[in-house]
Amino acid sequence: MMIHSNSNPPLLNHLGQLLSLSHHPLETTIYNGDGGVFINEECQLPLIDLSGLNSPDEKDKLACTAAISRASSEWGFFQVINHGISPELLKKMRKEQKLLFETSFENKATCGLLNNSYRWGNPTATTPKQFSWSEAFHIPLTRISDESCYGDFTSLRIVMTEFAAAMSKLARLLARILAENLSQKRGEIDEICDERSCFLRLNHYPACPVSPEIFGLVPHTDSDFLTILYQDEVGGLQLMKDSKWVAVNPIQDALIVNIGDLFQAWSNDVYKSVEHKVMANGKMERYSIAYFLCPSYETLIGSCRQPSVYRNFTFGEFRKQVQEDVKKIGHKVGLPRFLQTE
Fold first, then answer.
1. I need a labelling partner for 182 at 20 to 30 A (CA). Which of 22, 244, 265, 283 fits?
2. What domain of life does the UniProt record list for this protein's source (predicted)?
């Protein structure tokens, strides 16, 4: 169902300005750096039943943890079921999210909702290929329980506080499993990750009447340890696998987990932070919610194995470099900036 037009940001106007200024109009085919064509295919991500972690059979536990580690190395992405977050809570969160985005654009953009975290499109875009057909609220966990951030959306605060706590618990569980697989202490990752730096992002992708080649979210990797995504049934998420883009089939009530840049660096490239994107849909709007597990900005990210592929860096240094690159060249560079020079 389409939402009222006065609730959508002026994405079409912004894109029109970029198209008029651009010398590179939208292409109908996406090419790689060698001139070959990326063919979009559907894929079935590794699907992991987390109930195995609670099995009385030690073999079931080991099989489940091995599947998590293997998917993180081979795909950088996987889906989980029986993850401990109830379908009822997921439905409540989706209902509240829709009500939030259905409010007027003016209200979302000017009334200071959710720590004044509303964003739309991409203000740094200089070409259509850098433009994202979406809107989002990007909320630090430290502000999620703050009543002053919600205005009239009081029921959203109650549900989102419960949802954030459940996602945080799951993210830390998965991070501990991945750390232990690298022969690291289970508690070490808990010490590194800091709730003050973690956040939720509520995403809405309005139906896009322009072109099937418009990005809902431009290609990128995540600048965190790991991300947990709750998406609806519309689809549109694609990831890079074996040098081609593949589309992810949504599974009802499953959650998608992907490795971020920091886990790739910390694992010394054992785990893969994979490029992914969202494609806009010409007829249907799409909703998703992402939880990002992050360390404090002062945390030093070093490899747990030697020799290290990357030099040591802090999370704050990494984020600053990403922001500078986006501002200067229009896109994120990420980990290649931090490769060892010797």
1. 244
2. Eukaryota
Structural domain contains residue 299: no
Distance, first Cα to last Cα, the chain: 56
Residue 26 has pLDDT above 90, yes or no: no
CB 35, CB 29: distance < 8 Å: no
Look at 23-37, 204-218, 262-276, 277-291 and tell me which has the smallest mean pLDDT.
Answer: 23-37
Domain ranges, residue 59:
36-294
Alpha-carbon radius of gyration of the chain: 20
Q: Give the pTM.
A: 0.92
Q: What is the dihedral of CA 72, 76, 77, 80, to 10 degrees?
A: 10
CATH of residue 114: 2.60.120.330
User: Each residue of 180-203: b (16+ CB within 10 Å) or e?
Assistant: bbbebeeebbeebbbbebbbbbbb
What's the rounded Cα separation, in Å, for the pair 52 and 167? 19
In whole angstroms, give the CA distance from residue 329 to residue 51. 45
Asked if the structure places residue 327 within a domain, the reply is: no
Question: How many angstroms separate the CA atoms of 130 and 219, rounded?
Answer: 9
> Using CA atoms, how far apart are residues 161 and 165, in angstroms rounded to an integer?
6
Q: Quote the CA–CA distance of 116 and 140 in Å, as a whole number.
A: 11
Cα separation, 224 vs 260, in Å, equals 5
Within-domain flag for 307: no
Positive or negative, the Cα torsion across 155, 159, 162, 168?
negative
Fill in the amino acid letter for 312: N
pLDDT band at 25 (very low <50, low <70, confident <90, very high): low
Q: Please check whether residue 135 is in contact with residue 206, taking contact to mean a CB–CB distance below 8 angstroms.
A: yes
Q: Using one digit for the tens of pLDDT, what is the confidence trace for 172-226?
A: 999 999 999 998 766 678 788 888 899 999 999 999 988 678 999 999 999 999 9
Residue 28 lies in a domain: no
